[in-house]
Design a protein that fits this description.
- This protein has a single domain (5-178), classed as Flavin prenyltransferase-like (Rossmann fold), CATH 3.40.50.
- The chain is 43% helix and 20% strand.
- It contains nine helices and seven strands.
- The protein has helices at residues 16-28, 39-42, 47-54, 71-78, 89-96, 103-110, 123-127, 129-140, 166-178; strands at 5-10, 32-37, 81-87, 114-119, 144-145, 149-152, 158-162.
- The protein has a five-stranded parallel β-sheet, sandwiched between helices. It has a two-stranded antiparallel sheet with strand order 6-7.
- Helix 1 (16-28) links the parallel strand 1 (5-10) and strand 2 (32-37).
- The protein is globular and about 40 Å long.
């Protein structure tokens, strides 16, 4: 049996540091992990961290392709699961409405397998009607969610919006691999 291929999208939420832990846990479980980072995520965690943990090149731009075939298209053909952790309100909005303006959103729109989002944002943002409408649309389309959790967030607020812990996301990923294809 071949290793399951997971694309880990990392967006610019402060919880990006938790994505490194998730990447490490996935690699330790022998998943083939490929990371795509937004430019905002790169302000918080360096691509080399994910290169070292995943032992695969990290995609950070649509314009840095070493091959004739765009990496996001080739990756989409073999990926079993797309996980976005942390998943910001910005990504949720773009993904919901088909906006592809960076490597991660472009990849997400080419991915045809299962998708798991791990939201991470200020509780007021999470409660915003536009975010909730986008989440409802994505759920209707079959997108899965891990969290968000309740608790203290980086800005000092309390409430629902905190990214789920990497172990909880890992359990959700493993459960998704046990579900039949839609």
């Amino acid at each position: 049996m071949s290793k399951k291929c997971i694309v880990l999208g990392v967006t610019g939420g402060i919880a990006a540091y938790k994505a490194a832990d998730l990447c490490s846990k996935l690699a330790q479980k022998s998943y083939d992990v490929h990371v795509i980072m937004t430019s905002s995520a790169q302000e918080l965690v360096r691509p080399r961290t994910f290169l070292t943990l995943s032992q695969n090149p990290v995609i950070t731009s649509l314009w840095a392709e070493p091959d004739w075939r765009p990496g996001h298209v080739a990756l989409a053909e073999r990926a079993d699961l797309l996980v976005i952790a942390p998943c910001t309100a910005n990504f949720i909005g773009k993904f919901t409405h088909g906006i592809a303006d960076d490597a991660l959103t472009t990849y997400a729109l080419t991915h045809s397998g299962k998708v798991l989002l791990a939201p991470a944002m200020n509780p007021k943002m999470w409660r915003n009607a536009a975010v909730q409408a986008n989440v409802a649309i994505l759920k209707e389309r079959g997108v899965e969610f891990a969290g968000p959790a309740s608790g203290h967030v980086a800005c000092g607020d309390e409430g629902v919006g905190r990214m789920s812990e990497p172990d909880d996301i890992l359990r959700r990923i493993e459960a998704l691999f046990c579900l039949p294809e839609r």
